[in-house]
Amino acid sequence: MKEIQLDFNDIKECPHSFVMAVNDTMNVLTGKWKLPIMATLIFGKKRFKEIEREIPRITPRMLSKELRELELNGIVKRTVHDSIPVSIEYEFTTSGRAIKHVLDAMVEWGLEHRQAVLNRH
Amino acid sequence: MKEIQLDFNDIKECPHSFVMAVNDTMNVLTGKWKLPIMATLIFGKKRFKEIEREIPRITPRMLSKELRELELNGIVKRTVHDSIPVSIEYEFTTSGRAIKHVLDAMVEWGLEHRQAVLNRH
DNA sequence: CTGTATCCTCCGAGATACTG
DNA sequence: CAGTATCTCGGAGGATACAG
């Protein structure tokens, strides 16, 4: 559970709280599997095996690890239903779901940037 | 110059162009030094040595590598002034500067999320 | 079904020295 | 000043097997 530590704390124009906020956000977005996992949860609760099935090539080790990290970071909620056999469901927290606004900004910039690059050939 | 390849192309709810756009954006934000480098360019052109001085602990190797990558991705423009000795300046492209909108969204979410996490202790 | 435990590989990044 | 060339290493992530 290591913290990514961006090293521009000394740049005077960046208030420390802004830098921390960007750090927090990057923490939730970086790594190979976090975005794919979040994508599977957009339309509601899912069980471990469902998520695993929807993400080609992910291993249970990585899925477990990333879900635990997302839970610790308050992005997803894990619920144990003690049926037989037990089933476990993952879903976004309210705050976790709101990261969609960041993704929207990324989509918008990404599309515009690709267009801008194409326009100069 | 490897491309980060997010592996959720098969998730039907994500239009491929949106996935590509998020990929493009992540490409520009990930890694240890890209954000610090961009932060130094917010207020205008800078020379290699100036950027190096403003970012503690970065090595010329990494600065060179990241600047080249940002240039190839159309984020920064590199200008050679053939004075004696030559001086070289780096600055945002128009499209590169616009990534600030993404950072704004990240700051907003990051601050709100931190607050949300604190509120439930 | 919902994960852990081991072992292993590869690459991002650091250290250091050098070049035009 | 504006970089490049080597060498090295830790850690993210993969493969495979196993557990409750």
UniProtKB/TrEMBL annotation, chains A, B:
The lineage of its organism: Bacteria, Pseudomonadati, Bacteroidota, Sphingobacteriia, Sphingobacteriales. Gene3D superfamilies: Winged helix-like DNA-binding domain superfamily/Winged helix DNA-binding domain (1.10.10.10). Keywords: DNA-binding, Transcription, Transcription regulation. Transmembrane segments: none annotated. SUPFAM superfamilies: Winged helix' DNA-binding domain (SSF46785). InterPro entries: HTH_HxlR (IPR002577), WH-like_DNA-bd_sf (IPR036388), WH_DNA-bd_sf (IPR036390). Residues 14-118 form the HTH hxlR-type domain. This is HxlR family transcriptional regulator. PROSITE patterns: HTH_HXLR (PS51118). It comes from the Bacteria.
